[in-house]
Design brief:
The protein is mainly beta. Helices cover 7% and strands 44% of the residues. The strands form seven sheets. Strands 27, 29, 30, 31, 32, 33 and 37 form a seven-stranded mixed β-sheet that branches. The chain has a six-stranded mixed β-sheet with strand order 22-1-2-3-4-39. Strands 9, 10, 11, 12, 13 and 14 form a six-stranded antiparallel β-sheet that branches.
């Protein structure tokens, strides 16, 4: 361990002895906000196995990590209302399996001048000696976005219930030329071969988004590098940047500090309401990140995204127990603010996803962590089932409002595919123009989820196949929300993206996690992901139905379908939480 880092760790324990980090009054006031949702009203849109707060507003995931066999999840939280507010803190939950969760007292909330107005997003880094450190954005007394440091008060507590803050916060303030409210969300730190720690912080200069690079030898004193690690023109502020290595030719994850010739690096940034990423090569001695094929984060329809639906402010971490990188993201509500106030809560998290680089090296693959399979019940399956043009087949035997469904389609006569040059087409616009009711040749075909018996309400997740004039095929994946509800004041924007597969040699597969008001869809084994929020008018579980459909003019075959009802995960409030449950 380096001498500077040893000095930092000694300071940690000194501050723990002399500084609680939270005033007693503030602690009591904040902690009394963890309570269960209003049980006196119907809650048809609360989920069964997706993480959400017991009540009130939630947005960005913060500082996920594994510590002493316990998974920790922190999140942006308004302790007083189901809407975004003037005070945002870090709420906290723990799990042994990423499925079942225990809600704890909030972990980090305003107590210093450096975060007195709010404690905004940040990341966890595990320092030598297995010591978690949280770098996060504070809104200080001048409403500046500054970067602060906190760590656990009691390292022997695997739940890490209490946190203390560095007495010299803020450690980083907005650089010259950056607006006070455009500098936030420090990343997980990585340590180069030179022993120096590095982080990126999101921001912009003159609306040009960038990931500012900072270096430190002791994790306290940070110096900004001359050039940002990555930037783009006219994107606005970059939020929640993430930077991490992915090993080639492997589905494993690796620690953020691993540096070798057999890895690529991923730069992710959030802007325009989406999480964009690019894959490239990182050189720590030159502090240079070079995107492959010259692709940068521009926000065009051709750029790569984690998810092409409602999925934002994501945060990943390395799970060293299972050698995987795990990804979380905020899935916002798309009903009205009045609806959220009535429900008493707002915001979901995506189900945790394992993440790795595709064997082609061109994109990332995402897939629900394997622990989700413990919730499966009552499997129903189909094999080699033909779907004639215009057919709709109901899947019986499962709870359609809370399900996990995998299906693979085989196409026979590709030469009949519609002719369209998809190189210059926005796939989302194409999905809106040619929805599930717009008949093509090969497609639309897929699932009708959270559907009413009469199909008046339905969410269609489907594929269409096109060919260009040179015989090259493109596969479009859509989530059509245009008929997802008959309610008003609901955002029913459809989503879409192309899937990088060749239907001449590969079957077209789809997996859907259906959970009341959320559907997470994974095309081609996780190459393309779309998350949607839905609010059908019917409110009883038994009113939900699931169908497979083919609205194309050509027959297709279901080569394999497996569907399960899903048990509800356990979400409990820790017995030590001082709340009025």
């Amino acid at each position: 361990m380096s001498k500077p880092l040893s000095s930092f760790l000694a300071l940690c324990f000194l501050v723990i002895i002399h500084h609680t980090g939270h005033t007693e009054a503030a602690s009591r006031n904040i902690k009394d906000t963890i309570r269960l949702p209003n049980q006196k009203i119907e809650q048809p849109y609360r989920t069964g196995y997706h993480f959400q707060p017991p009540s009130n507003w939630m947005n960005d995931p913060n500082g996920p990590m594994l510590y002493k066999g316990v998974y920790h999840f922190f999140y942006q939280y308004n302790p007083y209302a189901a809407t975004f507010g003037d005070l945002i803190i870090w709420a906290h939950a723990v799990s042994y399996d990423l499925v079942n969760w225990i809600h704890l007292d909030p972990a980090i909330y305003p107590t210093q001048e450096a975060d007195i107005k709010s404690c905004w997003s940040g990341s966890a880094t595990i320092l030598p000696g297995n010591i978690p450190a949280m770098l996060y954005t504070g809104s200080d007394s001048k409403s500046r976005q500054v970067q602060d440091l906190a760590w656990p008060k009691n390292l022997s507590d695997p739940f890490l219930r209490e946190w203390v803050k560095h007495p010299k916060n803020p450690l980083i303030t907005p650089p010259e030329g950056v607006k006070d409210d455009c500098f936030r969300d420090p990343s997980t730190a990585w340590r180069g071969p030179d022993g120096v720690w590095r982080i990126v912080v999101g921001g912009d200069r003159d609306s040009n988004g960038m990931a500012f690079l900072y270096q430190s030898t002791d994790f306290v004193n940070w110096k900004r590098y001359d050039q940002p690690l990555s930037s783009a023109v006219a994107t606005g502020t970059w939020e929640c940047p993430d930077f991490y290595p992915v090993p080639l030719n492997s589905t494993n994850g690796i620690d953020t500090s691993v540096y070798s010739g057999s890895v690529k690096h991923v730069m992710k940034a959030g802007f325009e309401g989406h999480d964009w990423y690019t894959i490239g090569t990182y050189s720590s001695d030159r502090e240079n990140f070079l995107p492959q094929n010259g692709l940068s984060l521009t926000g065009s329809s051709l750029d790569l995204r984690y998810d092409y639906g409602q999925f934002y402010a994501s945060k990943s971490f390395f799970d060293d127990a299972k050698n995987r990188r795990v990804l979380w993201a905020w899935v916002p509500e798309t009903d009205s603010q009045a609806d959220d106030i009535q429900k008493g809560w707002a915001g979901l998290q995506s189900f945790p996803r394992a993440l790795w680089i595709d064997k082609s090296g061109k994109q990332l693959i995402q897939w629900p962590v394997e622990e989700i399979e413990a919730l499966r019940l009552n499997e129903v399956n189909l094999q080699n089932k033909n779907l004639r043009p215009g057919s709709v087949l109901e899947i019986h035997g499962i709870t359609a409002s809370q399900a996990d469904v995998t299906i693979s389609f085989k196409l026979e006569d590709l030469k009949e595919a519609e002719v369209l040059d998809t190189n210059v087409i926005d796939p989302q616009a194409l999905c809106a123009e040619r929805g599930a009711s717009s008949r093509g040749a090969l497609g639309p075909f897929g699932l009708l989820a959270m559907a009413s018996k009469d199909l008046e309400e339905q969410t269609a997740i489907f594929f269409r196949v096109f060919q260009n004039q040179y015989g090259r095929y493109s596969v479009l994946m859509c989530s059509d929300l245009s008929r997802s509800t008959v309610r008003s004041n609901i955002d029913t924007t459809s989503f879409g993206a192309f899937v990088d597969i060749d239907p001449r040699s590969e079957e077209i597969s789809l997996r859907n996690l259906i959970d009341h008001s959320i559907i997470e869809s994974f095309g081609a084994g996780g190459k393309t992901c779309i998350t949607s929020r839905i609010y059908p008018k019917f409110v009883q579980n038994e009113d939900a139905h699931l169908f497979v459909f083919n609205n194309g003019t050509q027959a297709i075959k279901i080569s394999q379908m497996n569907a399960w009802s899903m048990k509800s995960a356990e979400f409990v409030v820790d017995q030590t939480v001082k709340s009025t449950v």
